[in-house]
Amino acid sequence: MASKLLTRTLVGVLFIAIFLACLLHQYAFMAAMAFVIIVMHIEYYDMAIGRGSYCLEKVLATATSLAMFLAVFLWKLCDFDAKWLLLCALPFFACCAVLVLDRKERGEVRKTENILFPVLYVGLSSALGSLLLFDKAGVFGGRLFLAIFILIWMSDVGAYVLGMGFGQKPDSRKLCPDISPHKSWIGVFGGLLFVCIAAVVLKLVGWFGMGWGHVAVLALLVLVCGIFGDLFESLIKRHYGVKDSGRIMPGHGGLLDRFDSALAVLPVVAVYLILFEII
Question: d(Cα 118, Cα 114) in Å, to the nearest integer?
Fold first, then answer.
């Protein structure tokens, strides 16, 4: 038990160190995020389809997600004409064409859904989330992006601390026991407490260049979307009968396990900030 905890802690520290290092330079982040997108696709396909089949379709779907992320990221970074963003649809249409022409796939609609779903789940989320790395002038900076992740992490910590400490009693009300039996309403309130404290601190130190009202909304969005993102990935794993999405992070599971909340939080936060012309 102690060795597992040590492994989990060391891997977690290493993950955070790499995460912070990648935020120091735009191309380091771009390369790291491309790697993450590829791994998350592989993890999902291993759960949903298995290895050794539909290889070309998987590659084209993964290429679609990569194209979406890179197109949006480079559009903000290099400020080229937005019409070139349409090119990221080419690998998607190629994937659809292969699915139609592949005789093995005809009639197996579920396989088609499983192949295309990560484009929405991973690709679109990553593309929209990357907008948080740029200000209105298109200047790269990781402070806002990191601040959102700090809120996500603090929400998780608060939910874990209060949920495990007070939410596991027989009379405790569970959040969604059929999906995740350990998540409780006490954990939700713990996450709310911690995320609010973190949001106030980040605002006071100048990491949020917006009004208090927007900070409050962001804290609420992170809490709610993070919970749904976590539960959604748990639902996927339960459906396919797996405990972890992968084994790339010993003691933690896969990258889908680590970014499950972020995949739901980042696009919603990005859309909110764009609508109110904050980024």
Answer: 7
